[in-house]
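Pipeline run #58 for the internal structure catalog. This entry was flagged by the ingest filter as a single-chain record with no existing model, so it goes straight to prediction. Upstream metadata was stripped on purpose; only the residue string is passed forward. Reviewer on rotation: M.T. Logging verbosity set to normal.
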Amino acid sequence: WNNRMSVVLYGLKTGGLIIFYYCFSIGLTFYNKKILTDYPFPLSITLTHLLIKFLIAWFVRRVTSCFRKRPSVLLKWKPYIKNITPMGILSSLDIGLSNWSLVFITVSLYTMSKSTALIFILIFAIIFKLEQPRVSQVGVVILIVTGLVMFTFESTSFELEGFLLVMAASLVTGLRWTVAQMTIQKADLHLSNPVDTIYHLQPVMLLTLLPLAFFIDGVHMGSSRQIFLATDAHKVIWTALYLFAAALLAFMLGVSEYLLVYHTSGLTLSISGVVKEIIILTISTTAIEENNLSPLNTAGMVVCILGVVLHTTMKAHRARVESAKEEISRSQEDQKKLISSGDDRLQEEDEESESDNSIVLYETKL
């Protein structure tokens, strides 16, 4: 009964975190596409997001530290450079390349291509020994990727430049979430709070993207009549509000991602994103890009869902087995303690009886 309850509670917690993640991820995908269509400066807009996210994280940390009456986590330079810098560089490249690719390709092609991150996450997780190499796990990943390819077959317009950018982002994503899992699950760093993680990451991400944004967006953005050369104050205010709303969505997405990775794994984050990708693709192909789903696309969606169900079932089974092993280990330790305490008691009784015997012999001699 205890094993079943622990599995149910684990499933409910994971499901809640996944839904929390879906809300902001789906919204931000379409919102970014809209912004980048109107303002085609992907890296500069990403820099704005990072700066606003840092300010929001700083504000939240200040407020929570006042209520808790103790300072928030602040890493020293050595652990910061060793642990946060690699994760920050990878995170900035992932987000920057992903947003840049949306300038050239449709949402459906972006989602299909980015789904290959699932393979890279599994490869890096096995390399860094975060996941055990299981044939069943590899089979599930192949099943899901095959389903996604079927689901998006002939439903997108291909653009090589955007495709190469998003594939590079997928590779970086695989390494990013593997490194993130290893970093935020370290107990000595105390980064279980995602706001603390976001606060520490943003400076590194800003410094990484700043030179890229300057060389790629600088001239076009500086001569844009929509931003720096704008003459309509009303339009400038609305642009600022658009960017702030996107940054707020990005902040909440970061919170949901790091919560999910901290309590589960990078692979679970990627696989749970498959259902999100199906939702995005369904909306983009039917409602926005006005394409109908073919029988092959529908079959691909079924294959994807089957893969997700298999992964969830295997994950729950492993959690149940691990819980049972922990219980057996605890009971064995309790038995050892009982046996040890019993032996100590017998030894004490033997010593007492020996002491009594020696006293009797002494009195007899007298």
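catalog note: Residues 119 and 242 are 34 Å apart (CA to CA).
catalog note: The chain has a mean pLDDT of 77.
status: ready for reviewer M.T.
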